[in-house]
C-alpha cells in the first residue's frame, strides 16, 4: 500500500478508536419503572455521547456503556421522555417514567408490551400538570376530591373507596416527592407547585407493604425548570 495513503488511514482509525473509548468510559446498570413499582419492558435507553441505544428487559433492567459525564434519554410510547444526567459517581440509574394522561397512553403501554401486568396499570389513576391547570383549585385536597373517582377526603384524611382496611386506619398512604408524609403536610403546598398526582390501589400498592393496604397517593412537585 502507498505510504501516502497508509499513514493517514492508520491515524484516522486510531483517532476513532480513542474517541470511542473516551465515549464509553464505563458500564452502568439501571432499571426502568412507572408509578415507582411497575416494571417497564422494552423502553429505549439512548446514550447521548455515543448515540448507542439499548432496551430494558422484562424485569426493567438495562446495562450500557457511558462516558463519565453523560446523559441518558429514556422513552417508550405512551410515556413522557425522560433525560437522566450522569456523573462519574453514578453506578446505577433508577428511572421512573411518567405515563401520559388519557386512556390512549394506557393502551399503548399495554399494547406495545411495555407493561406486562395490565391489572396493575388499570388500578392506577393519574393527573399531570399537562392534563389540567392545578392552580384553579385552592388546595391539593380539592384536586383529589374533585378529580379522582372513588377517592374522598374525610376529616382531613384521604380515603379510597372500595378498599377494605386490614388495620384500624382507613387513610391512604401519602408519598410526597418520594417521602411518606402526614396528610396535614399537604396544606402547606400551593397547588401551583403540583406536577402530578397518582392514586394507586389494589395489588399495585403492594410495594409499600402494610402501609399501602389502604391505597397510596403519590404526589410530585415541580422542580427547577418543570
Distance between the termini: 58 Å
H-E string: HEEEEEEEEHHEHEEEEEE
Count the domains.
Answer: 2
By CATH, the topology of the largest domain is Ferric Hydroxamate Uptake Protein, Chain A, domain 1
CATH homologous superfamily designation of the largest domain: TonB-dependent receptor, plug domain
Structural class designation? alpha+beta
CATH class of the largest domain: Mainly Beta
CATH architecture of the largest domain: Beta Complex
- Ranges where pLDDT stays below 50 over 5 or more residues in a row are none
Largest sheet: 5 strands, mixed
Shape: globular
Helix tally equals: 4
Global Rg: 22 Å
Fraction of residues in H or I helices: 10-25%
Arrangement of strands in the largest sheet = 9-14-15-12-13
State mean pLDDT (0 to 100 scale): 82
Beta-strand content: 25-35%
What is the tally of beta strands?
15
Description:
The structure is a single chain. The protein is α+β, with helices and mostly antiparallel strands. It folds into 2 domains: 3-97, Sandwich (Immunoglobulin-like), CATH 2.60.40; 124-221, TonB-dependent receptor, plug domain (Ferric Hydroxamate Uptake Protein, Chain A, domain 1, Beta Complex). 19% of the residues lie in helices and 32% in strands. A 5-stranded mixed β-sheet has the order 9-14-15-12-13. Strands 1, 2, 5 and 8 form a 4-stranded mixed β-sheet that branches. A 4-stranded antiparallel β-sheet has the order 4-3-6-7, with no helix packed on it. Strand 3 and strand 4 (53-55) form a beta hairpin. It is globular. The relative contact order is 0.13. The mean pLDDT is 82.
Amino acid at each position: 500500500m502507498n505510504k501516502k495513503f497508509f499513514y493517514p488511514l492508520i491515524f484516522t482509525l486510531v483517532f476513532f478508536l480513542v474517541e470511542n473509548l473516551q465515549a464509553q468510559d464505563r458500564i452502568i446498570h439501571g432499571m426502568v419503572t412507572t408509578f415507582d413499582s411497575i416494571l417497564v419492558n422494552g423502553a429505549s435507553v439512548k446514550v447521548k455521547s455515543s448515540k448507542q441505544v439499548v432496551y430494558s428487559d422484562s424485569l426493567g433492567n438495562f446495562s450500557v456503556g457511558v462516558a463519565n459525564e453523560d446523559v441518558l434519554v429514556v422513552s417508550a410510547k405512551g410515556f413522557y421522555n425522560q433525560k437522566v444526567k450522569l456523573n462519574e459517581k453514578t453506578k446505577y440509574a433508577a428511572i421512573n417514567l411518567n405515563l401520559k394522561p388519557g386512556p390512549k397512553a394506557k393502551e399503548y403501554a399495554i399494547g406495545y408490551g411495555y407493561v406486562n401486568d395490565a391489572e396493575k396499570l388499570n388500578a392506577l389513576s393519574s393527573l399531570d400538570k399537562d392534563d389540567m391547570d392545578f392552580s384553579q383549585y385552592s388546595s391539593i385536597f380539592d384536586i383529589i376530591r374533585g378529580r379522582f373517582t372513588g377517592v374522598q377526603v374525610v376529616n382531613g384524611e384521604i380515603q379510597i373507596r372500595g378498599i377494605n382496611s386490614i388495620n384500624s386506619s382507613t387513610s391512604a398512604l401519602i408519598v410526597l416527592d418520594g417521602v411518606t408524609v402526614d396528610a396535614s403536610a399537604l396544606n402547606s403546598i400551593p397547588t401551583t407547585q403540583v406536577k402530578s398526582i397518582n392514586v394507586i390501589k389494589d395489588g399495585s400498592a403492594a410495594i409499600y407493604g402494610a402501609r399501602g393496604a389502604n391505597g397510596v397517593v403519590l404526589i410530585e412537585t415541580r422542580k427547577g425548570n418543570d
